[in-house]
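[Discussion] Sanity-checking designs against the backbone

I'm trying to build intuition for which residues belong where. Below is a structure token string of 133 positions. I'd appreciate it if someone posts a full sequence so I can compare it with mine line by line.
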């Protein structure tokens, strides 16, 4: 009966973590959920496909310390990857903004040059019309 209850909880945990993979959930509190070794292994397997989970609380479960250590290592790796992705996104956005500003500056400069050339053309055409032939 207990094993059956654990399987149900493990199943719910797997489904929940898998479902959250494409979402934005980064934290999960699974304290005091009666997870056993089997539940810890299932959770660890789920973490192989879920890289968004960056904080996980497992206090009060019956998961062996070696499995908890492995789970913690995976969650910490997810957190580090998340930080790298955030930094990458931040720098990419900054670069995009700088490029857009540079493009706008270049467009303004081109427009200024076009106006200057048009003015010189008018001046040359006027001078040529006024010059005796």
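Best answer:
Here's mine. Compare freely.
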């Amino acid at each position: 009966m207990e094993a059956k209850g654990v399987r149900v909880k493990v199943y719910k945990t797997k489904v929940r973590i898998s479902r959250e993979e494409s979402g934005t959930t980064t934290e999960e509190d699974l304290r005091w959920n009666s997870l056993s070794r089997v539940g810890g292994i299932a959770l660890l397997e789920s973490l192989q496909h879920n890289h968004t989970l960056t904080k996980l609380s497992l206090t009060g479960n019956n998961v062996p310390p070696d499995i908890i250590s492995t789970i913690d290592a995976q969650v910490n790796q997810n957190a580090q990857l998340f930080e790298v992705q955030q930094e990458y996104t931040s720098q990419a956005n900054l670069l995009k903004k700088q490029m857009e500003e540079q493009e706008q500056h270049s467009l303004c400069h081109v427009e200024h040059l076009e106006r200057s050339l048009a003015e010189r053309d008018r001046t040359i055409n006027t001078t040529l019309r006024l010059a005796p032939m």
